[in-house]
Automatic annotation (TrEMBL):
<dbReference type="InterPro" id="IPR036661">
    <property type="entry name" value="Luciferase-like_sf"/>
</dbReference>
<dbReference type="GO" id="GO:0016705">
    <property type="term" value="F:oxidoreductase activity, acting on paired donors, with incorporation or reduction of molecular oxygen"/>
</dbReference>
<protein>
    <submittedName>
        <fullName>Luciferase family protein</fullName>
    </submittedName>
</protein>
Length: 98
């Protein structure tokens, strides 16, 4: 089984879809997106002193709906496969998972 290069697509705000065309140029086998409701970061340490990410997002829990986002990504890509690295099956209807 060959090892292929994949890319991780962030599902938090601020969302940047501009780089998708570059990611779809054939370099990557797939784009992976997580499906999270909340982050593992505690609010108490979400500060610029602890992580630079706090400068671009006021909360670590601002996740977008992964399946809706996958639809937006699919419109802008043609070659790269889309995948979820985590999918929350408890809060999704079975029809959405099919």
């Amino acid at each position: 089984m060959p090892l292929e290069l994949a890319s991780f697509f962030r599902t938090t705000l601020p969302l940047d879809l501009k780089g998708l065309e570059a990611a779809d140029d054939g370099r990557y086998h797939s784009l992976w997106m997580p499906d999270h409701l909340v982050s593992f970061w505690p609010d108490s340490i979400w500060t610029p002193e602890f992580t630079d990410l706090a400068e671009v997002s006021p909360s670590p829990h601002r996740y977008l709906d992964t399946l809706a986002l996958a639809g937006a990504v699919a419109v802008r890509t043609t070659r790269t496969r889309l995948a979820t690295s985590v999918l929350d099956t408890v809060r999704r209807h079975p029809v959405m998972l099919a």
